[in-house]
Structure formats: C-alpha cells, structure tokens
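thread: overnight batch results

M.L. [08:02]
morning all. the overnight job finished for the chain we discussed friday. pasting input first so we're all looking at the same thing
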Amino acid sequence: MPSRFLERTTILGRTRYGAIALGGLLTLLSTPAAALYPKKSDSAPHHGVREARRQAIQGIDVSRWQGEIDWDKVKDAGTRFAFIKATEGGDHLDPNFRRNWSEAKKAGIARGAYHFVWWCRPAKDQVRWMKRHIPRDPDALPPVLDVEWQNGSQCDRKVSREDALEKMRIMLAALQAHTGKKPIIYTDINFHEDILEGELNDYPYWLRSTAAPLKHRYNREKWEFWQFTTTGRVPGITGDVDRNAFFGSEHEFTAWREGRFDIGARTWRGGEPKVARGKAPATSAGSRAPKAAGGTALRIAPPAKIPQRTAHND
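M.L. [08:03]
and the structure it wrote out:
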C-alpha cells in the first residue's frame, strides 16, 4: 500500500495527465477543419463555410480562366471531382474544354461537363449546341445545367418564373436523354430565390455560398454539392479556382458514380449500406456533420506528444 504522499502524488499525476489529454481533445475538436487535403488552401478563407471544408469528398470547377492546368498535380492534391465548362448559350464552346476533359480523365479525376444557360436563346438552340459538344462518356459524371441571371452580359434580361422553368425542363430532359444520366442543377442565391424555391426537387442541386452555411442562404432542405469559395488554391492551377464539396460519404459518392444511388432523390438501386442492430444510424448525409469528413475516429495523443494547434486554410 503506498504512503499518503505517494497516493497524493499519484492522484495529482492522473489528474494532470487527464487534463493534458482533455486539452488535446479540445484542441483537435476546435481546429477549424480536419486537414484532409493539406495541399489545398484558400487565398481568402471565410469562417462561415468551414462545414464545407470538413466534407470528405472535395472537388473543383474550371473554365478557360484557369488557363493551362496540370491535372496530375490537381489529382495529387486530393481532388476527387471536377466540373468543367463545356458550352454556353447556343454558340460558345469553352476553348479549353476538350483539353481539360481529356487530361482530367488521364489523371484519374471524375469529371462532368457543364452548360451555362443564356435566357435570351431558345431552349432548342441550346439543346442542339450541348448535344454537339458535351461527350457521352459512360464514365463521366452527370452533366450540369448552370442557371443564373446574366447581369452585365449581352443577355441580361430576366425571364418570368414560368418561362425559366419551362426552358430548364426542356434542357434537363435533353441532357438526360443525351447522356443517360440525371443532370445536376447549379445555381446561386438570387436565382434560386426568384425561380427555384420548391421546384425541381428531384434533381441534385449544386449551390453557391461563399460566406455562410447553405441553410442560412437557401430555403432548401438538402443539397448535393456546395461551391464554398471562389478563391481556392490548388496545386497545378495558377491563381484562384472555385472549390466544391460533395454532401455525402465515400460509399454514397461511389454508388452515385456507379448508378446505384440517386443523390437527388436519396434513393438506392441496390448496395444500400446496412446499419448494425443496436447501433445508431449514421448521420444523414444532408446534415453536413463534421463526422462526414472521412468518418475517421478521433485519436487522443499521448501526454508528451500533444500536437500544437496550427492554423489551416483547409
């Protein structure tokens, strides 16, 4: 039996080690985002989108403005997907599309093409142009219909809600028939509020918010992709690039790519994960919980090896 002094020393030591371990836990929990992709960063990071940086599946979107891209370096940085601008209106093809499309595939990055809608062009003209230039690659991601108001462009007039939705339905149906995959709708806060609230809810949504959580900007219960910054930095790309996050897990991302999971409707066509009896089900994909960042169990560092908290852009 130890002496009172030894007993007291032991108790104090346990208390001290417990406090150190707790401090390490709090440090890890308070870090802005898990360093899942340390090679990625942001030239002007915003605290309001930290939830997006915690998502396990991260990607980018690019156009001619990113110049010549080294896709191998982009892949090495942990980029899991890329949306690449293909067409605009009824007569514009992004001059870098074909190269980006080919090189991204060679690097092993899942990629999808997007079309930027012009409201002053008939839907049939834009459908004809998309079919001419958007590939029907079986391994490609579903195509994207980019819908925004074109303020400051040659086509800056707004159309009615009914006209906009009718044009969208025509183009979405045509893209699905052309590629065999349900398209994604990209939009921003203003267009969503004016046109899309309560509409086309069976489609996957790719939403833009660079300064606040999506739930603070959109009257929408769920999301599939989040464009959370326009000032991202990724090796292989000179200057700023848009960064994006996928809402769900590795299993959901893979199943979606294989056609077994409809991310818009949240329905499975085989391969649905089983929940063990007696355990709570996994957090719903649309809730954007920090655990979605890979689902890695938190490890407590030994007392003598408590990591120093560092600032991360990612």
